Request: fold
Amino acid sequence: MAEAKTDQNPVGKGGAGKEKGEGDRAQVSGRGGQLIYTCPQCGAQNYVDPNWTWFTCWRCEFKKPMSLPDS
Reply:
C-alpha cells in the first residue's frame, strides 16, 4: 500500500522562509513587505510573504502553518 508522505506541502500558498528580510529599503506605503515568524522548533526568525498560509523554516526545515502573526 502507498504510505502518506509527511513532507508534503500544506494547502495554499507558501514556501521557504528567509533568514534575512528584503533589506532596509524604505517602503512608500509605510508598511513592510514581509512578516516575521519564529520557528517553534528551533527559534529561528523567518521572513515570509504576508499572502502565504504556510512556510518552511530556513534553518531546520520545519513546516509551519501560519495563522496569526507572532506578537
Q: What stands out?
A: Residues 1-5, 24-30 have pLDDT under 50 and may be disordered. The longest strand covers residues 35-38.
